[in-house]
Amino acid sequence: MRHVAHLGRIRARRGCRSTACLLWAWLFAGQAVCAASTVSPPRAAADVAKPFNLALAAAPSSDLEWRLFADAADGRLDEFSPLDAALVASGVGDVESLERYRRKAAGLVDELQRSGACAGPPTAVAEAVFEFMHRRVLRGRYRIDGTDLRATLDEGRFNCLTASILFNYLAGQFGLQCRGLAAPGHAMSRVLLPGGVLDLETTCPSWFQLRARPTGMSEAVARTRWPATPAETANLREVSPIQMAAMIYYNRGVDRLAEKQFAQAAAANAKAVRLDPGNATARGNLLATLNNWSIELGDRQQFREAIDVLHQGMSLEPSYRAFAQNFVHLHHQWAESLCRAGRFDQAFEVLSRAVAEMPNQPYLRRARSEVSQRLAKAIAERKPAG
To answer: Are residues 366 and 2 in contact, defined by beta-carbon separation less than 8 angstroms?
Structure first.
């Protein structure tokens, strides 16, 4: 059979911008090509020891997570604080651990209170909180994958999302009204002031000093790679604490996808969609995860499992172009593998099921016809002469 074109692996987008985090897709012929990196990540053990069920994988994995999802179901948090929600989304799974991080965060507030630095007008308070956060907490280096708020509080590792969540918490304890800000690939903080708003690039320690020097601020913004264009600035939107927790989940999904831990990546992205159903990035990352997982399983010759994963993706988004093309490609791989083993009858059955499912795909019909001819020839060659 001739090779069939298919969509290659799709790159997922995280909540903090990197130099390569856009949702891309490439059209290839022949074998799949991984475009996510020039260095192949380590191969993970097969994820499908038993059939994968996305609904079960997306279910909360701890009592705390169950309670968080129930609390967030009406679009607001009552039982959990924004800090609590971010910690649970980061992986805190028991009350004792949650209480320990609450005490650690409260200790920071107490330390800042005792310093007396937070006296004065709102802008001065915001600056004092910002300076304290960078001097006292964010002492580790910035990491694009620094999405775990536990690591931020324990080790000072951070990215734009965790820095913004922490700033909003600290500033809120001193009476400031804060919001999260999100744009494609980035997160920031917004302080609501009597005379307007103050938007903060929370990953830049010298942000307040640079406000007095527009040239320096522009250089700092350029180093963060945001905002790159006026269009991206226009896309800046306020997000709720629930939506910021969802961003943690889908960033975790991006990290797991990069490690080829597909089941965990799918579960994290599904939880992000559950918390924030309108988040197109989280939904896109979930679809990309299922697409890439099916390609990986096909490369491992686990065709039945690959098709099952693809079916679950297709049930979420039937019109997703990559699913339809990779459905055809996987059946091409599967049938070709069976034909090489001389199992033409099984190849015919595989392609017949595919044709029944996608009757408007001409390649599948042609491939089935070709296999049928090869099957007839094989049967004829097995008949005794005369």
So the answer is: no
Q: Name the residue type at position 29.
A: A
What domains appear along the chain, each with residue ranges and CATH number? 5-43+243-382 (1.25.40), 77-239 (3.10.620)
Distance CA 21, CA 34 (A): 14
| Residue range 102-117, pLDDT digits in tens | 999 999 999 999 999 9
Between 251 and 236, where is the model more confident? 251
**pTM of the full structure:** 0.82
Q: Nearest CA to 367 among 340, 333, 341?
A: 333
DSSP, collapsed to helix, strand or coil, labels residue 238 as strand
Q: How many residues does the chain have?
A: 386
What is the distance between the alpha carbons of residues 234 and 370, in angstroms, rounded to a whole number?
A: 54
**Which phi and psi (to 5°) does residue 200 adopt?**
-120, 130
Q: Which helix (H) or strand (E) holds 186?
A: strand 186-193
Q: In the structure encoding, which two tokens stand for residue 265, read together?
A: 């990546």
CA distance 35 to 258: 11
